[in-house]
Design a protein that fits this description.
Aminopeptidase, alpha+beta, disordered C terminus, about 180 residues, 5 helices, six-stranded mixed β-sheet, globular, about 25% strand
């Protein structure tokens, strides 16, 4: 587990740190899956501009970014928003991205970020959360099964791995057990 780690709300000032985590994580996680030239061409400076715009549009609890910090270092983040998928109900939120630096993988930071995202999405009134994710992501470690692209499933049906960019969806309800994705 990570020691002295905190989750906090990101602000526009954090755009560079978020971009650095985003680029580094893509370069490590997708090496061998995407062309090296594409990964090597990713720019923290360009991503910082994009993240500056995204962070300036934060409207928590519906839309926003949470940072995972160890000391003064940003080591991960999660971004949430209403779903961008027109085929999903308006009661669906979305985790548009979750990234953790490779040195902090499998140490519990993802759970801290998803717990925070879940609380925010629930506070915003969403009944479901969706995420586009690669097959090798932590969601599979949580035991959740994915469905074909552009569909949803209940998080309680668990097993298997799937192809890149499958839609994963979790539904939670008050009073019941927490679905595997959020557990």
């Amino acid at each position: 587990m990570l020691s002295s780690v905190e989750v906090r709300i990101a602000t526009v000032v954090d755009a560079g740190a978020v971009a650095a985590v985003h680029v580094r994580t893509w370069q490590d996680a997708y090496r061998g899956l995407l062309p090296d030239a594409h990964l090597d061409g990713l720019s923290v400076e360009r991503r910082s501009e994009v993240w500056g715009r995204i962070l300036s549009e934060s409207d928590l609890p519906r839309t926003g970014t949470f940072l995972l910090e160890e000391g003064l270092d940003v080591i991960g983040f999660i971004h949430i928003a209403p779903t961008r998928d027109d085929n999903l109900p308006a009661s669906t939120g979305e985790v548009t991205g979750i990234y953790i630096t490779p040195s902090a993988w499998r140490l519990g930071g993802g759970r801290q970020l998803t717990d925070t995202a879940k609380a925010s999405l629930e506070a915003a009134g969403f009944a479901t959360a969706a995420i586009w994710r690669p097959a090798h992501s932590t969601n599979d470690r949580a035991g959740c099964r994915t469905a074909p692209a552009r569909s949803t499933i209940e998080a309680t049906s668990c097993s298997s791995r799937s192809a890149i960019a499958r839609l994963f969806s979790c539904r939670w309800t008050g009073g019941g057990p927490v679905p595997a994705f959020w557990a």
